[in-house]
Amino acid sequence: MEWFDNDSFWIDQYSIVFSDQRFAEAADQTEKLAAQAGFRVTGVDRTVFLLEKGRARARAVEDREDDLTVLRHMLRNLRPGGVCVIDLKGKEGVARTLQPTSAEIRRDGTIVVKRCWVVDDWTRVRTEVIEIREGERRTFNFDVTLYSGQELRDRLQSVGFRDIKLYGSLTGGEYGFDAERLIAVARKGSGAP
After folding, report:
1. Burial bucket for residue 168 (CB in 10 Å: 0-12, 13-18, 19+)
2. 182 within domain boundaries
3. In Å, what is the CA distance from 9 to each residue of 49, 96, 165?
4. How much of the chain is helix, strand and coil, in % rounded to 5?
5. CA atoms within 13 A on the CB side of 51
6. Burial letters for 98-130: b for 16+ Cβ neighbours within 10 Å, e otherwise?
7. Is 125 within the bounds of a domain?
8. Which domain holds residue 89?
9. Which of 32, 69, 137, 167 could form a disulfide with 183 if both were Cys (CB 3.0 to 4.6 A apart)?
10. CA distance linking residue 193 with residue 186, whole number of Å
11. 120 domain-assigned
């Protein structure tokens, strides 16, 4: 089983990866990208836990070929003229900010140590997360594929997306080496089936 298919990982890491502050900021930021301007939104994920979390909030990729398959499915499932928004940490930002080792103590006293390193010729970041809680140690390992702005744009174009724009933040800032995030906004052609 891949790390991203493991519901226990997401259950344990959910409050860290998807903090309340991040959700609070997202509503305001996505409005600036027109993601809430009357569009019907569909969430896509591989884990039951995160899909359930997404549904609850709405009510109140390992291999690059797999990534292309996901993009093809996204394009196919959009209506003509529909918009896709992708938010990730770009390769340029990782090159600038990657910390090989970091540690924190959570409010509940859990000690979390993260070790990160670049692998496979700068195509992936490998992360090891060690949690120590009440004398028990748990370790999670996962890899995340890295894309530069140009690499992501090329993949979106290769599967048929049009009018692709890259931003450096959810507020619409310019994408570049100092960008916080890599946000791609791409449209399905209006004449596409």
Report:
1. buried
2. yes
3. 10, 27, 32
4. 35, 25, 35
5. 10
6. eeeeeeeeeeeebebebebebeeeeebbeeebe
7. no
8. 3-109+147-187
9. 167
10. 16
11. no
At 65 the pLDDT is: 76
pLDDT score of 60: 45
What type of residue sits at position 166? L
53-62 tens-digit pLDDT:
776 666 547 4
Task: Let me know if residue 68 belongs to a domain.
Answer: yes
Distance CA 103, CA 152 (A): 31
Amino acid at 115: R
Beta bridge partners of 129: 114, 140
Cβ of 179: how many Cβ atoms within 10 Å?
20
What is the Cα 36 distance to its own chain's centre? 19
User: pLDDT category, 164, cuts 50, 70, 90?
Assistant: very high
Split into its structural domains, the chain has a count of 1
Q: What is the Cα–Cα distance from 132 to 17, expressed in whole angstroms?
A: 18
Coil/strand/helix, residue 78: coil
